[in-house]
Amino acid sequence: MRILIVDDDPLAGEMTLAVLEEAGHSCRLAEHGLEALERLTEDATFELVVSDLHMPLLDGLELFQELRERGLDQPFVLLTGDDPAPLLEREPGLHACLAKDDSLEQRLPELLDRL
After folding, report:
1. CA nearest to 52, candidates 21, 11, 106, 93
2. What global pTM score does this model have?
């Protein structure tokens, strides 16, 4: 699967990229929501977006909403250090919302196996 990872924290972005590439996916990294929006507008071959929630300029939820307004409907997984349940309630169109914790390395590839 071709995945765009969006994270303003270089270490977190690289960790997510490594986990997903190890699981056999082809990934690209965007440093913030505006860069991701530009890439997704120019290249519709991304099959999934995995984005951090808290980022400057355009946060993960704003990115998701902007993509939907533009008619881009790739599955969208939000990663957060916050409690994910209220975020899913607030934005039910998200494919998933996962906590950034020790289990992410296992849960994220498992989630993508079900897509």
Report:
1. 11
2. 0.94
